[in-house]
Amino acid sequence: MNQRNRKIMLETHAWAGLILGVLLFVICFSGSVAMFVGELGAWTNPHLRRAYNPAPFSLEARYQDARAAGLTQPNVFIAMPSPAQPYLSLATFHNGEHQDIHIDPHTGELLPTHHAEISEFLGHLHTDLHLPYPLGRYSIGLSGIFLLLLLVTGFLIHRKRWSELWLTRPTKTRRMWLTDIHKVLGTWGLPFTLVIAFTGAILGLLGFLGPFMALATYNGDVDAATQAFSGPPAQRTEQPAPMMSLDTLRERVLSDDPSMDIQYVSLREYGDGGAQIEFNGPARETLTYQNAFVFSGADGALLHRVNWNQGGVWHQLFGMVTPLHFGSFGGPLLKWLYFLLGLSLTALCATGTMIWLEKRLHQKHGAAPSTNRYARFAMGVCGGLPTATAVLFLTHALLAGDAPYVAFWLTWLGVVLLAWFGPTPAQLTLPLTAANAATAWLIPLVNGLATGDFLWRSYRELPYVFAVDAVFFLIGLTLWVVLQRRLWPSTRPAQARVLTPSRES
Amino acid sequence: MSSQAKAVTPKPWGRISAGTLGGLLLALAVGVSCSVFWPSDPFDRMFMGALLFPGVWVTAMCTAFTAHTGKQAWLWVGVPTLLFTALATTGLFLFKQAV
């Protein structure tokens, strides 16, 4: 690549990163936490904490228990027990009302209903930015496209990518230190970033792409294409009919496909002659999306089957998009790796923005007011999100209802306003880091005080609760070490500037 | 943007619009063409179009940004877009006739 094109790639990388760096930080950070949508369930719901029992149980008996407990709507969604959520969850949506029941799969004991999940809240931030569909979803998809652009341009401009895989040169300035970290994180995380950006772009823009891709065969009718793929919807006949046993149908699924890990069961128009019962789940130890068996509820006939392992190469590749994005195909170790890589991608977004700001904030002739304003905005949004997330966990352990979510938004808004009107970003870094360290340490402590599940107890009995508390403890420890040792180099005194109100006006 | 960089990349809006807007149209045209012509089952063709979409768009952006002028960028992206659109439209027409 010639010098001119390299310079253009550098400019593209800088401007795209500047415009989208803060948004990408929010998306990557929230995604890193929201990935544990199932695993966080035990921590957020102390009443549902129990050991996982993998012994077989009667799904039919538990469903009848739920019906006896008042879950009588014809359309029911059942989440099967898992090590992270060792109970049956049954949910219905009827006339805009949502009803949830949790049952012990072996004893049939009704468990307390929990309030909304932290991971779902952060998941909505990750997938929709808490904006109405499709505005938020398409924004996320476009961010994925531009993350891909950043990746390609970053790869092209970084000539010494293989020789600079390790931080070897002495760091003299903060900008040099940030640049080294940015290069190392970018190079090591390249395959992960490629996968996340590519799959995120497709998942985010799927609603937009669907009508175009369905033009040829389905005249642009996405619903028709979806029905052809996932099976026809249940048609109510208004003729009551006895239903097949869920246990019998489950056995048929597992005899047809022993590798299927049944995660969800959907009952549609249950009790009617047109009822459907769908079993859904991936094949164990394969990189595939949810396969499905759809049966007639009345006579047990197999109405439709979805098998992502069959079909053409593009069909099978598309089936890998969702598990690749969520890291749901390789067990807990892969999820931890995704978590660490997700945080490193978050740090990549932050360091990219900081490099740009370092360069402009410490110029000899001083920074432009717009640069100062952007530095404050970036500090507020990026510094405020981890603080607000820690407050969300902390308040969730103490308060019920929507109070934790109100605390989340108020904390984030508070940090944004503080960064905008208060101390400079340089002055705010230390107190904000100290506040984050303190909050992170308080979370396992408060959880222990509120539920009795301190680290030394959950270590033996509740691995998912222990993992959450231990992560927060380690985050607090890391931030404390960072604070104590001041790991980042200072800006050189000759170049150091403190933002003054007159420059910012 | 530095003055040196400005000298290399004057008036970037033509190239930016060609890369972003033109690239989007090109990626859609390529995707629809694939969903019409790729010799496989309907879902395979649909998924192919969706999977190619991000790569085509990003490639178009990188190509358009390195053009010397906005006009050249629109030419680089616009011509293949028109070709693929014509291909997809013809294919869709023939497909409908056949059905």
UniProtKB/TrEMBL annotation, chain A:
Pfam families linked to this entry: PepSY_TM
Tree of life domain: Bacteria
InterPro entries found in the cross-reference section: PepSY-ass_TM (IPR005625)
Residues passing through the membrane, by range: 12-37, 138-157, 184-209, 336-357, 377-399, 405-421, 428-450, 462-483
Keyword Transmembrane helix: yes
Protein name: PepSY domain-containing protein
Species assigned in the record: Acanthopleuribacter pedis
Keyword list, A-Z: Membrane, Transmembrane, Transmembrane helix
UniProtKB/TrEMBL annotation, chain B:
Segments traversing the membrane: 16-38, 50-67, 73-95
Keywords associated with the record: Membrane, Transmembrane, Transmembrane helix
Highest taxon above the source species: Bacteria
Protein name: Uncharacterized protein
Species this protein is from: Acanthopleuribacter pedis
